[in-house]
Backbone:
């Protein structure tokens, strides 16, 4: 039996990117039950990819009973629906066999990974205050992508002088804007820029100097995305809601590295259940950005542990 429910998690504060703001995370929770054992997974439908709670739920409900992970890869496209079911099936097998998912996937035992903490887009003054509050964190991620980004970036650096900084432009820049900003990004110690240009317009990145490395986010969904990234990006951001689950995420990670890309593992804003499988993908990643639960007022029972060492692998009571 495949069961789909909707859950809402309140955010600790308004979360704003260049596309808009939100005060809660709306997710779909999938439970797959077979012979009295239930595995579960979570996905976050994303309007940027023409997904809604209703459309993703309909995709999940269209699946036949008894579908396995292999058949699932063909039954649904990469995206949120396949992600939740794929992760639920991994969890189900772990519970049925009494083995952890990392063992089933023939992976090394996972450990904690230092994760970025995201600062919401706001006024420079508010972002400086946010940065100062979280200056103890080793890695801060800044949401930018507007015509007034430099004052915000300067403010964050002033608030957190020692933190490593990565920038997410959310498709809000042009190649010219990136080139103009690059010297200032270097001066302010920015380590990475995510998706500076709209995914459909990133041909403009071909051949330009990239003194600050660029990471493909909206331009990279699964392994089929990789050929179009050549000469444009230095890193790929792997998110399970884009790849369609852990199965493809692990395959994309290996293929991207084989093609010479560094790997970032990111997330939508969701609960610990959504992050748990991504922690396995993030092992050894250049950048881990799995801070979704840190942005919530409430979380799943038995949430992930976050401490000075980073985000820890899930307890089996949560997932896997």
Residues:
């Amino acid at each position: 039996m495949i069961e789909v429910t909707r859950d809402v998690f309140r955010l600790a504060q308004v979360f704003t990117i260049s596309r808009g703001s939100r005060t809660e995370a709306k997710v779909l929770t999938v439970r797959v039950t077979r012979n009295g054992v239930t595995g579960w997974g979570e996905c976050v439908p994303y309007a940027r990819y023409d997904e809604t709670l209703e459309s993703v739920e309909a995709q999940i409900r269209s699946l036949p009973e008894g579908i396995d992970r292999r058949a699932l890869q063909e039954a649904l496209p990469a995206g949120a629906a396949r992600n939740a079911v794929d992760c639920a099936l991994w969890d189900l097998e772990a519970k049925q066999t009494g083995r952890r998912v990392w063992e089933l996937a023939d992976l090394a035992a996972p450990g904690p990974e230092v994760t970025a903490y995201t600062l919401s887009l706001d006024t420079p003054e508010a972002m400086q205050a946010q940065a100062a509050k979280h200056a103890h964190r080793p890695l801060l991620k800044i949401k930018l992508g507007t015509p007034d980004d430099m004052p915000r970036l300067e403010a964050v650096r002033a608030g957190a002088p020692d933190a490593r900084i990565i920038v997410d432009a959310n498709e809000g820049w042009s190649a010219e804007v990136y080139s103009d900003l690059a010297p200032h990004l270097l001066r302010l110690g920015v380590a990475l820029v995510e998706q500076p240009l709209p995914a459909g317009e990133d041909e403009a990145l071909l051949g330009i100097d990239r003194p600050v490395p660029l990471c493909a986010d909206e331009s990279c969904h699964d392994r089929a995305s990789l050929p179009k990234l050549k000469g444009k990006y230095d890193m790929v951001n792997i998110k399970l809601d884009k790849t369609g689950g852990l199965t493809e995420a692990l395959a994309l990670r290996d293929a991207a590295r084989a093609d010479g890309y560094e790997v970032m593992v990111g997330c939508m804003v969701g609960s610990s259940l959504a992050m748990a499988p991504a922690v396995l993908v993030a092992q050894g990643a250049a950048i881990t950005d799995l801070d979704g639960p840190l942005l919530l007022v409430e979380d799943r029972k038995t949430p992930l542990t976050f401490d000075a060492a980073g985000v820890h692998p899930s307890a089996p009571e949560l997932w896997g």
Q: What stands out?
A: Residues 80-97 form the longest helix (18 residues). The two ends are 19 Å apart (CA to CA). DSSP finds ten helices and 13 strands in the chain.
